[in-house]
Amino acid sequence: MVIDLPGTYSLRARSPDEVVTRDVVLGRRKDVGQIDLLLVVADATHLRPGLRLAQELRACGIPILVVLNMIDIARHRGITIDAERLERELGLPVVTSTAVRRGGMETLWARIDAMLGQGLPERSAMTWQEPTAAQLRLALRQADGLIARTVHKPVAPRSLTEKIDTVLLNPFFGPVFLLVLMFAMFQAVFAGAAPLMDAITVFVDWVSATVSAALPEGLLRGLIVDGAIAGVGSVIIFLPQIVILFAFILILEDLGYMARAAFLMDRIMGHAGLHGRAFIPLLSSFACAVPGIMSARVIDDRRDRLTTILIAPLMTCSARIPVYTLLIGAFVPARSIGPGIGLQGLVMFGLFAAGVISALLVAFVSRLLLRRNEIAAPLMLDLPDYKIPQLRGVVLGLWQRARAFLRRAGTIIFYASVVVWVLSTFPFPPEGASEPAINYSFAAMIGHLLEPILSPIGFTWQICVALVPGMAAREVAVAGLSTVYAVSGGEAALGSTLAAHWPLATGVSLLVWYIFAPQCLSTLAVIKRETGTARWMWVTVVYMFGLAYVFSFIAYHLVRALGG
After folding, report:
1. DSSP symbols for 458-495
2. Contact criterion met (CB below 8 Å) for 373 and 364
């Protein structure tokens, strides 16, 4: 069995992910067992920390194979490494590789096979102890000595990465470029996805019409067409937008720009009381808050990590996109306000920005309340070289995310759609009933029960019904609205129905609600797991619902006062 452990430069373990690595290496995890062979992957362009780690790991008594990764970039820079001499002086076997391009993999496998064939060396006694600062400095000097004797670095002119960084990391132009890049990304989400969304709408309508023609009128046809197809179809239509958003994120990550974005955001986040390392978890939360919260393990300080976990759900995850897209399409005209700038894309950008700003404000308040007099630790970040994204990696990443979204559509959203249909269908209206059938249903009873609480923020009882299954996942609310209003025909038809039934103030209020409301049970569950207590989960529920209610109330009455 091969275990890929979180990266670390030492077994001192200052963050939860480093604790995992330390405990596995030291044999403290009962669920893993004893390790037979350690592969220490070191950056061939920056050997110092990798060699120091390898020296520290020798004290663990486990057989080690050192892998000098990214050897292609090192050679491209003119760096030559005498691997044989390094192996002799280090006292450990050494091979070179280029993992992303699978270069050197045959040599690596051959070396492992040879080691296994000869029989791995006997484990020596465990002598590891947490190194002191003086021992760390000594180990770094020893690593420097090894590098001086085995590595030759030419005096090279400035690399292309350094030239690009002088522009993209410029204190003025860098943030401007990042802002323009994010704006262009959200414009592309709307403009580029439209043809594919239209095609999915046509397909869903065709399936709905085909099933309707094949089945006699009755409960079964209603369940399949008005419940399952209308509910799931109203959500999967947003797949192209989610794919485009993730394509941008994956390409920028492969390009090496994301680490620069974290560097640029560090100063802004520092003013809000956040550590620069919080940028990566928060950026991941744009896709989904669950992996974003889990990736907060990279933050060393416990309180910084807790703050990051609590604000991560405020970032605009992909589950909000179907709701945002539906409401923007219903209430915001699709017109251009400048060359290449659409009003709907601008509103979408504003909603994403609102999530970021609200997260920073909550972090700022948290800092004022809990850590007013503390000085934040500086950001230490390795900036990788720029490199051309690998098509295979990007496509694989898109496929994984699209499959996860479709799986949700086929499970959570499907079941929720069926539940909403049942609640909207039963009981049947009494004899001689003059109102629509749904007004006599369980859904109407639930909606009317919640309506007094949510009517001050402009929500109708139909919205209340959609919010209940929407607690499982935000996008389920779209399916819920589609079922409650008995609308088929995709986003455009549902949007037209909502625009006809709701005033503008209600649409704006619901948009604001979704900026803050913690409507995702998976996110709440992972907060409980990562913090180790239910207390912080309930803190998240209370403060996010509180913000959602207060700001929706303000938005609703402000728009009403302006005549909307």
Report:
1. T--HHHHHHHTGGGT-TTHHHHHHHHHTT--SHHHHHH
2. no
